[in-house]
Design a protein that fits this description.
Shape: globular
Oligomer: single chain
Helix content: 25-40%
Largest sheet: 7 strands, mixed
Strand order of the largest sheet: 1-3-4-2-5-6-7
Structural class: alpha/beta
Distance between the termini: 31 Å
Number of strands: 7
Strand content: 15-25%
Length: about 200
Amino acid sequence: MKVLTRFLLSAVAPQHFPPAGLPEIAFLGRSNVGKSSLINSLVGGKVAKTSNTPGRTQAINFFEIRWPGRPRPELVFADLPGYGYARVPRAVTRTWPQFIEPYLAERQTLLLCLCLVDANIPPQPSDTQMIAYLRQNNRPLLVVATKADRVGTRLQASLNALERAHGVEFVLPYSAKSGLGQDELWKRLRAATAAASASGESA
């Protein structure tokens, strides 16, 4: 699906966040899980910077999303720094709680958190901890298993293991290379956005 995407800003403090308005989708995951590749494949263009070096994203990057043929943007993607990578300078990671935790815990327009996990490796405790944190803050979430094209015939077993480890009923397999899961993910994002819009109109 091709959408119209515009980079808004990078934020390293709550006062840098864009004005609250449109519903926001947060992309979360360990460093090198493929967040930028997933975002680029979703929007059909290279808007998020990809790198073979984990830990490159060190701010929350906001992108405005507009469906083709619509006059106004519909939602905002928020690409958060990857966690769990030791080579990001400690001087940088020490500042992350100052803007990442306020965003996840307090942002009123945060509609859905996409928790990206790697389908090609065993379930990671840091992912379980992030999912637990989001639940504690009553954040709706969807677990997405990236790099699903690399797993081959073990995909269903991998998904089952991820569901058990993270205590979720469903994990969406996704491949930025093959397009697996792209239509299903867009379907869920659009449904969540439509539901949020209907709720706002009826409020």
